[in-house]
Design goal:
- The complex is a heterodimer of chains A (about 170) and B (about 575).
- By secondary structure, chain A is an alpha+beta fold.
- Chain A is about 25% helix and about 40% strand.
- Chain A is elongated.
- Chain B starts with a strand and ends in a 23-residue tail after the last strand.
- Chain B is globular.
- In chain B, the strands form 4 sheets. A 6-stranded parallel beta sheet of chain B has the order 3-2-4-5-7-6, sandwiched between helices.
- Chain B is of the alpha/beta class and about 575 residues long.
- The longest helix of chain B is centred in the first third of the chain and has 15 residues.
- In chain B, helix 12 runs antiparallel to helix 15.
- The chains are: A alpha+beta (about 170), B alpha/beta (about 575).
- Chains A and B meet through helix 1 and helix 2 of A and loops of B.
Chain lengths: ~170, ~575
């Protein structure tokens, strides 16, 4: 099962390798890992997408908490969250195909961020499913390059009644 | 007063109560050595940095204090890695200081530069690089705090050379160390303990499993009170031996792959297992699905990651072992349980297993049963081959020193001899068996023995070794000689890497490959070369008298005992089997 973890860490050299080393050293999976600063200059925020059964996830969370540089770990799987990922795609856009691609881009609420003679760069954000669907639709035009941020997530303010806040 | 980094470092180390450190100098740590005479810290010069870490580890295990090492950058630092990983696996508090090239050269592939933080990240509890002298006092204090609190472990501090010769105004900070991200939970959750107390009082065939955490947390006394009062038998992991009186009729001995028959049977049949400060290593559980199949498990451990890592647990208690057991004692007191919790059938069954075991020619539970060896005419000190039985050596050793067991410390290397020590020497005091349990580091015992001797100068410290393992850190005989440490090294010499040979015998049709140790030094002459006493025993009839002479002389000694080459360790639980599927002969 896929899990999204929110991990607040102290912003110091080596902290990323402590976290990533923990995953590789213990044979845990990382699907995506996003690291970015927070408003507090002393901390950074990581969003880690991983998968495993409940026992493995429990170990991952406990092992992360055990790292001295980790401030806080939240497993979002028991909560209603907003998940987003941003992707840049360079897609082939020869004469004739361009119109169709722009229509698709419009439907997926993408932005055209760069125009070349024979390709476009599109910026799209959404959850994983949307990004995968969009990529699938672009295949026939020739997807030349993809850069993705990995998932970021935030807990929704209003939780459905059956879901307890962590 | 203005002081340089080296002086500040040593003052901080001294303030932690450190009186001995183990080290080896090099180019980037010279400032520290220059400052050393002004401080009350004994520096013990080892012969190899791995020896320094094992010695500090032995010092820490024997004393309960934090062990300290000081080594140089590059190869000095990489040589510590095995020692650090050994301490990490067994949760031993160490602070290892390594030199480093100056900050402005880091990343330059400078002479003797290595990324020791990167290398040791997975085998330290935490590690630090000191970037400037301003950070130094706080980092040293944090390092000691992290090393010894919670589940203890090694912490490495990297000291770039420029940090050691920069100066600043310094007075020692007095406020306690606080870390916002690290605050180990010591107190047990009372609701969980209530459930635990209920489960204990309702059990018919309960069993304590004592791990190294019992020793670490000084929980042996309360464990003993609980076991005795409620007649609950105790089995121990290798790391837990000595936490509970090994001569008590309630002690079943070590469990696991080479665990004793009554212990492995009891785990397999108990209805409640109370695991304290143990982490269910694969060598302890055997096949997990067959482990304690009828039992609910109460698991008390200070490290939340130990819980539910390999074995499902019905009642987890994350807490200091001593505090948790004391609270459990209070709760049971309130329940007014009249006497024994173990049923009469359970206690009788334990006796039956003991007797079955004693009748076995491998007689693996004589010592475990705690009483003097059962008189068994089938068992003589030598085998029909005329060789000395290695097990007899351990029994003889115990006969000679057992009466002074609180002043006797046994270290071991890793292999068959280690298991025979665990099986045949009934440890009864905490911190008297120092052995590499988790990592299984051959070469641990000799340097650990010298560290232990420095921690406990009035104790008799004995390294029980194999002829293979002892050769892995032989150079530390020099440290033993230089410091006049009366350490005894007893080599069970079978001219094989015996444990590997045993595995090849059982599982590879006796295809012995790369296990012969036919060529080895003359250990008697080797001892003499270092100015120590050397003895060799080949004749079973003089075993006791020679051992006695070596043990009770005031000098360090090596006793090379030629034992049966192909003796095996029994019981043995083959990989993938349950604990009750032991090979007994």
């Amino acid at each position: 099962m896929r899990h999204v973890l929110s991990v607040l860490v102290e912003n110091e050299p080596g902290v990323l390798s402590r976290v990533s080393g923990l995953f590789s050293g213990r044979g845990f999976n990382i699907e995506s890992l996003n690291v970015a600063p927070t408003p507090d200059p002393e901390t950074s925020h990581m969003t880690i997408t991983t998968f495993g059964d409940d026992q493995i996830l429990e170990q991952i969370v406990k092992q992360l908490r055990k790292l001295i540089t980790v401030v806080k770990v939240i497993d979002f799987s028991a909560q209603a969250t907003v998940e987003r990922e941003m992707m840049l795609v360079r897609v082939g856009a020869e004469e004739g195909a361009r119109e169709e691609i722009l229509r698709l881009a419009d439907i997926f609420r993408c932005k055209v961020v760069d125009v070349g003679h024979s390709d476009l760069i599109l910026e799209v954000s959404g959850d994983q499913e949307k990004l995968s669907a969009f990529l699938a639709l672009l295949q026939k035009y020739g997807v030349r390059e993809v850069a993705r941020t990995g998932t970021v997530a935030m807990r929704r303010s209003l939780q459905p009644e059956h879901k307890e806040p962590a | 007063m203005a002081k340089n980094g080296a002086q500040i470092l040593l003052e901080c180390i001294e303030r932690e109560g450190v009186d001995v450190m183990f080290g080896y100098p090099g180019g980037v740590t010279l400032d520290i050595y220059d400052a050393m005479p002004a401080f009350n810290i004994r520096h013990v010069l080892v012969r190899h940095e791995q020896g320094a870490v094992h010695a500090a580890d032995g010092y820490a295990r024997a004393s309960g204090k934090t062990g300290v090492c000081l080594v140089t950058s590059g190869p000095g630092a990489t040589n510590t890695v095995t020692g650090i990983a050994t301490a990490y696996a067994d949760s031993i508090p160490l602070v290892v200081f390594t030199g480093q090239v100056p900050v402005n050269l880091i990343g330059n592939d400078a002479f003797q530069e290595v990324d020791i933080l990167g290398i040791t990240r997975p085998c330290t509890k935490h590690n630090y690089m000191v970037q400037s002298v301003k950070e130094l006092p706080q980092i040293v204090r944090r390092a000691f705090y992290i090393a010894r609190s919670g589940r203890p472990g090694p912490v490495l501090v990297e000291l770039p050379r420029n940090v050691l010769n920069e100066s600043m105004e310094f007075s020692y900070p007095d406020e306690p160390v606080r870390l916002r991200t690290y605050n180990p939970n010591l107190k047990p959750n009372i609701n969980q303990l209530r459930r635990a107390a209920k489960a204990v009082s309702e059990a018919r065939s309960p069993l304590f499993l004592a791990g190294g955490g019992v020793i670490m947390a000084d929980a042996g006394a309360v464990l003993t009170r609980l076991a005795n009062r409620y007649q609950i038998p105790v089995t121990s992991t290798l790391m837990g031996l000595g936490a509970f009186d090994g001569t008590s009729p309630l002690h079943l001995g070590m469990l696991g792959m080479h665990g004793l028959y009554p212990a492995n049977m009891a785990v397999s049949k108990c209805d409640l297992l109370i695991a304290v400060g143990a982490r269910f290593d694969d060598r302890v559980t055997g096949r997990v699905a067959a482990f304690a199949p009828n039992a609910g498990i109460i698991h008390i451990d200070i490290d939340p990651t130990s819980i539910r890592k390999s074995v499902a647990v019905s009642i987890p208690v994350v807490a200091d072992c001593r505090l948790a057991l004391e609270e459990l004692e209070n709760l049971l007191e309130k329940q007014e349980v009249p006497g024994a919790i173990s049923s009469r059938e359970w206690l009788e069954q334990l006796e039956i297993w003991r007797r079955e075991c004693a009748a076995n020619p491998a007689h693996v539970c004589r010592a475990a049963a705690g009483q003097n060896p059962v008189e068994n005419p089938a068992v003589s000190p030598e085998l029909s081959t005329g060789f000395i039985r290695p097990q007899t050596v351990i029994e003889t050793l115990y006969r000679l020193v057992g009466a002074h067991e609180d002043k006797t410390i046994i270290t071991t290397e890793v292999g068959q001899h280690q298991m025979w020590v665990a099986q045949f020497y009934p440890f009864s005091r905490p911190r008297t068996l120092l052995t590499s349990g988790g990592l299984g580091t051959m070469g641990y015992g000799l340097p650990a023995a010298l560290g232990a001797q420095l921690a406990r100068p009035d104790s008799l410290v004995i390294d029980v070794a194999g002829d293979g393992s002892v050769q892995m850190n032989l150079q530390e005989l020099g440290t033993i000689a230089a410091n006049h440490l009366p350490v005894k090294v007893i080599i069970l010499n079978n001219r094989y890497l015996g444990m590997v040979r045993q595995l090849q015998q059982f599982f590879y049709n006796g295809n012995y490959q790369a296990v012969g140790m036919e060529v080895q030094p003359d250990f008697v002459k080797l001892a003499e070369a270092y100015g120590l006493d050397g003895y060799r025993v080949t004749d079973p009839s003089v075993l006791e008298s020679v051992l006695k002479e070596a043990l009770f002389s005031s000098k360090a000694a090596i006793v090379d005992i030629q034992v049966e080459p192909e003796e095996n360790v029994y019981p043995m639980v083959p990989a993938g089997s349950g604990l009750d599927e032991m090979l007994l002969a």
